[in-house]
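Form 12-C: Joint structure prediction
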Amino acid sequence: MGAGIDLILGKLRQNLDLTEHEKAAIRRLPVVVSRFDAQREIVRVGDRPQRSFVIISGLLATSKVMSSGNRAILAVHVPGDMPDLLSLHLPIMDFTIHSISPVTLGYVEHADIFRLCEVQPRVTHALWRTTLLESALYREAVLNVGHRDATTRLAHLLCELFIRLRAAGAVSAMRYRLPITQSDLADITGMSTVHVNRVLRTLRMSGMLTFSRGVVEIKAWENLADLADFDPMYLSLP
Amino acid sequence: MGAGIDLILGKLRQNLDLTEHEKAAIRRLPVVVSRFDAQREIVRVGDRPQRSFVIISGLLATSKVMSSGNRAILAVHVPGDMPDLLSLHLPIMDFTIHSISPVTLGYVEHADIFRLCEVQPRVTHALWRTTLLESALYREAVLNVGHRDATTRLAHLLCELFIRLRAAGAVSAMRYRLPITQSDLADITGMSTVHVNRVLRTLRMSGMLTFSRGVVEIKAWENLADLADFDPMYLSLP
DNA sequence: CGTCGTATTGAAATCCTTCAATACGAGTGG
DNA sequence: CCACTCGTATTGAAGGATTTCAATACGACG
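Section 2 - Result
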């Protein structure tokens, strides 16, 4: 399935120029494509995966449950991401990955990845780099959900998803599909569902943004990014 | 300076058994040792480091400033950590690293690291793994500062530092030096200094913990870990 | 002994949550 | 086409957690 692998290549290529030879070697990786409905657990706490996957289409979320019983979403993953690539080196998963929307995943065996890394050391570094890009997202999330007020927090999240989905080719004009509920937004931002609703209303009233039936439409990017304290440097995009 | 390098080895060894040959190769890396006072900027936003460092002694913090002007501390780094190792693959720093206490750092040139990785591919994987361990800290921090109440948040931070400093050999019995102010704790947890003070009083009153003049003493570990919702699985310790 | 950063406490204000009730919208079966 | 149902969205009002403001105390250090 060339589609998924080309997505990986897209990410890897971002800043590290792989040779045609190296790209061809990646394209030869055996990939198993699987589809899942929304709200399915893809990876569970305690799992010891023998393979990792790239998201070909759809959205995933990394989450943990707290002792209170509430579920916290720590990250949202978009097409091209490989959110469990870290299982290559941290064998026991300490979080859950579940599908937000229906998803298509491309699985690659760890053994095949390691074999490729032996032959093509620069591919090792490219994969390493993708895990570092992901950890930059977590770092920014600490800032966002831990240190900013509710309006800024939600605005920043929607700015980040706009830019990341655009980089993944899932944005037309100033609008993108975000098939999640306000309750999900609450689990991501650490706010109550009620307050998510109120903040969304404020953003709508201010004319910056609408979110309705799973579609985000950005009406005033400059104002929004300013309000959100959003500086995309941490995304390391070209 | 064998001390710093052996610290790296300690971290790397944690779960990946390097051969004597590989360890010897690491020990041969040229290291430049530097000392800094407290509150010095070690790495700045926009820097393009040509070398990385391991913390030989002291504490560092990774932080960003928000548009409000407030400084948020995203992570605290202990001896053995290599908090800017990611500059190997993400060349432009998007955060600041500053010293919390006086520190001793062991610098290694990127060029030397890359050269070693070429000769010893398993060292590449060991270094990759340390960056993944660090990103697990950020992931847990998202949960902690974004989704838990103030008491749990602060208790969790002090639990984590206890375990990490113990793993770094900086703990005697149930007490450890944490030479930071309550204002720093506020910048880490995303709370106000005043509230940090009140929460510390609560923890002291409940008999779980004292924090006074830069020394944390844990009086009731089980109760504290329970209150803090602290499960060390994310640290991937043996 | 004075000074300065840090710690501590009280009181008022604010942000956000919780509780509770209602409205909306898409899908389902009659 | 309509009534029903269920998940989601929306709004009001009250309560709680945390911040802000302001004042005082402590402790290390010159």
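Section 3 - Comments
Chain B has a mean pLDDT of 92. Chain B touches chain A at residues 16, 62, 64, 66-68, 70, 72, 74-75, 86, 89-90, 92, 94-95, 117-118, 121, 124-125, 128-129, 131-136, 138-139, 141-148, 189-190, 229, 233-234, 236 (CB under 8 Å).
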